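I have been asked to look over a protein record a colleague put together. Alongside the sequence sits a line of tokens, each denoting a local backbone shape. Please read both lines and tell me whether the tokens look consistent with the sequence. Take the sequence as given and treat only the tokens as open to question. I have pasted the whole thing underneath without changing anything:
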Amino acid sequence: PPAEQTRIRDMFKTYRKLDPSAKESIQQKLRPFNGLEAGQDEETLKKYRSIHEKNTRERMQIIEQSLFWKSLSTEEKEMFRSLIVPE
């Protein structure tokens, strides 16, 4: 949908504005998701879609309860929050 396309475009604009070290930090944190085994990728995609369908506030609540989020530094959390929550 057009609204979703706009939201994704805005996320990429925000990402492009980050300095190279911040981009590398994000890429490093997301690497474990690149190597999912067959079957795991489908399950992960279903979970992502169910979270994606929620509004921004609900989505952030789910993300902030995850082990992934808890492993981030304060600076990394702010970077991700800027990508997830529209300005």
About this structure: DSSP finds six helices and no strands in the chain. The chain has a mean pLDDT of 81. The two ends are 19 Å apart (CA to CA). The helical segments are 2-17, 20-30, 40-52, 56-64, 67-70, 74-84.
